[in-house]
Amino acid sequence: MSDSPAIEQTVFVIDDDEAVRDSLGMLLRTAGLQVQLFKSARAFLKRFSRECSGCLILDIRMPVMSGLDLQDELYKRRCRIPIVFLTGHGDIPMAVRALKKGAFDFIEKPHDGQRLVLATCHALRADAEQRYGMSASLHSPPDLAERLALLSVREREVLAHILKGRQTRAIAEELCVSVKTVEFHRSRIREKLHVGSLAELFWLFMTNGVQGLRRDEYPPVVASEEE
């Protein structure tokens, strides 16, 4: 269970490449985030309002209306929703320009899934702080080592696979257990680490400087804990 207040936030993905758009949607939904996909900046503007809470994952180069054009339009509408730009190798000067104009972050294509999820979580947190005055401390559960110590050996094995971005079925096959067993362990992991979603889980470990878990890094198991 998460300690932070429940806030309805959406990640708006805007990219004219259908394959990229669908891939991003799947990645972010797997991380437990609410996602809406748009094939163009204009399609997004038809549906968007300033009251929408969340962040944008925005391709910097698109036909008709580019990502930079959309950024300008949102600012004209006095909308400060955080924007994470997706850029190609030759688009760095454009990305720097976007950052100077207030963009939250930019990520080069082909994107690294873990970094994209982390950047998205940071952008959502920034939006929540901006809109609702939430303190960053609400998103920073203390005593990570103590919480990890509550996990069973099996739960830590499942956690290590989750942090590598593996799906439930793949984890089940690797550990030779059922999908339902993995789902049960995932639920217990979220409960013990006090996170409400996979996105919060990734954010918790990345902000604590932990990219993944090796067996020799696991804290001691609590004696009374069962697998």
TrEMBL record:
Domain Response regulatory residues, every copy: 10-124
InterPro entries the record matches: CheY-like_superfamily (IPR011006), Sig_transdc_resp-reg_C-effctor (IPR016032), Sig_transdc_resp-reg_receiver (IPR001789), Tscrpt_reg_LuxR_C (IPR000792), WH-like_DNA-bd_sf (IPR036388)
A Pfam family annotated for this UniProt entry: GerE
BP GO annotations: phosphorelay signal transduction system; regulation of DNA-templated transcription
Keyword Lipid biosynthesis among record annotations: no
Keywords from the UniProt entry: DNA-binding, Phosphoprotein, Transcription, Transcription regulation, Two-component regulatory system
Modified residues (4-aspartylphosphate): 59
HTH luxR-type domain boundaries: 144-209
GO molecular function: DNA binding
Matching SUPFAM superfamilies: C-terminal effector domain of the bipartite response regulators, CheY-like
Cited PANTHER family: DNA-BINDING TRANSCRIPTIONAL ACTIVATOR DEVR_DOSR (PTHR44688)
Protein's UniProt name: Response regulator
